[in-house]
Specification:
chloride channel activity, membrane, transport, 480 residues, mainly alpha
């Protein structure tokens, strides 16, 4: 409960506007003290208050609405990514055959059905990796070395054809490497090979244990692989310290910074020295595009290839829209002009209130400052909703949802309608004909012999008559 309250507090804009609120409240204290304790009256006409306040209210309302529109667009794009991922997975799993034949005139070995299934499931894992890579890309986390991403892509080619040196690294891996953890360029060491310490029995025991203990550990269900460097956590939120709750204490942190250890000084604070939330830096590489290239490859029939290409194209379009939301801030001139206008209004506010409200001018100014600047900061915060703040979209949950759905799709074999259509539970012609499918087949002659007599058995033309009767029954029963 305490942790939840702390997170909610950090998700407010109090720490973003505390300094400005303190400044304008101090001005109101000065104005009230001078006006009530001396002979001087620091007052202004209230006409400015009414005119400028109305204009600023409309402008701030537009600012907040446009920011929320970006927030809503981000949620829509992630809904589209989930939909397209399901479509891709179903197309790969159902419509790509397991019984392949060699091309005419070719002596190439035909893969076995098991090899085809392994290939299809690997492609579905890449569909899952695509959404996970989009999450890291939007959060400004480059590369693939994360606990929730690397196990899904580690089997992808690392070098250009024929090469085995650092100069031959493909873009996906070249952008992920760094000098701190250099890759061992040795073909005999399978950095992405499966660990020998894991087998099917132990995996089943782990899954059963997770169900009993109700432990939330999504990485437990991913492949266990060997890697030449430590993997980063799937979530890398900024470091939260004591001074994030009390930003005015950051001055002591700045003083102590030269005396801190180098390892500790590398920690990224959640907020700047004045309490402003830090925004992530953009990535240098586009891992989702690299993963999409491998989804385009494989043994695909032309009819299925069109559906796959359309799905991947739609995901690329969603990525472009997400990039637009994340990388297109409000123009600086607009932000600066709006903030200066609010500052002028708040500076003039206590001079217009003091003659009427007297000492109440102080809390009135503080509340108005909190109100105006709070809405302004909220607009700036939600216009990029892909970070780790409580106000941001839960990208991890979106990825977990896609992961669950893709595994659910792969849990079903390619359906054969004859296995489940012709059962006693299926009444295909209801409500006009409430017989089950086997009963209709057993009385097949009722739908094959043509006889136009009014009292005769229905002929083949009566199939349409049956469907029309069903339509009339549904139409009359479902209208209010």
């Amino acid at each position: 409960m305490g942790m939840s309250l702390r997170k909610k507090f950090l998700s407010t804009v109090i720490n973003d506007i505390w300094l400005e609120t303190l400044l304008f409240t101090s001005v109101s204290v000065m104005v009230a003290a001078v006006s009530k304790l001396t002979v001087h009256q620091l007052t202004l006409n209230t006409t400015l208050l009414s005119v400028l306040g109305t204009v600023l209210g409309l402008v701030i309302s537009f600012r907040t609405s446009s920011a929320y529109e970006r927030y809503s667009d981000g949620r829509k794009m992630w809904t589209n990514i989930g939909t397209y991922s399901r479509t891709l997975a179903m197309t790969i799993w159902i419509h790509i055959t397991n019984d392949r034949v060699a091309p005419a005139g070719s002596n190439a070995r035909v893969p076995t059905p098991l090899e085809c299934i392994i290939e299809k499931k690997s492609m579905i894992n890449l569909v899952q990796a695509l959404s996970v890579s989009i999450k890291h890309y939007l959060r400004g986390e480059p590369g693939v070395y994360y606990q929730d991403l690397y196990p899904l892509v580690c089997f992808l080619p690392r070098y250009a054809s024929g090469g085995r040196t650092a100069a031959d690294l493909l873009p996906l891996w070249h952008a992920s490497e760094d000098a701190e953890f250099p890759m061992e360029h040795d073909i005999s060491r399978g950095a992405g090979s499966r660990s020998n310490s894991t087998n099917t029995l132990s995996s089943n025991k782990e899954a059963s244990s997770l169900r009993k203990q109700k432990v939330f550990d999504p990485e437990q269900v991913l492949p266990v692989v060997e890697v030449h460097r430590p993997l980063k956590a799937s979530r890398n939120p900024p470091h939260t310290g004591f001074t994030d709750y009390f930003p005015f204490l950051k001055i002591f942190k700045l003083i102590a910074k030269p005396f801190r250890s180098s390892a500790r000084s590398q920690d990224v604070d959640m907020r700047s020295a004045l309490g402003k939330k830090r925004k992530p830096k953009p990535c240098d590489s586009n891992v989702p595009v690299e993963i999409s290239l491998y989804l385009m490859k494989g043994h695909i029939l032309p009819a299925v290839a069109g559906t796959l290409v359309a799905g991947i194209t739609n995901i690329q379009d969603a990525i472009s829209n997400l990039e637009r939301i994340a990388d297109t801030p409000l123009p600086f001139a607009y932000q600066a002009h709006l903030r200066i206008s609010i500052w002028i209004y708040l500076l003039a506010l206590p001079f217009q209130l003091v003659s009427t409200f007297r000492w109440v001018t102080i809390p009135a100014t503080a509340f108005t400052t909190f109100l105006y600047l709070g809405f302004l900061e909220i607009g700036q915060e939600i216009e990029n909703p892909f970070n780790y703040d409580l106000n941001d979209l839960d990208l991890d949950d979106f990825c977990f949802m896609i992961q669950r759905e893709l595994h659910e799709i792969a849990a079903h074999p390619a359906p054969n309608p004859s296995d489940y259509v012709f059962t006693s539970l299926n009444q295909p012609f209801a409500p006009a004909d409430r017989r089950s499918a086997p009963e209709i087949i057993q009385t097949n002659e009722h739908y094959t012999h043509s006889d136009h007599g009014p009292d005769s058995q229905p002929g083949s033309h009566s199939l349409s008559r049956t469907f029309i009767k069903g339509w009339k029954a549904v139409d009359s029963s479902t209208r209010k």
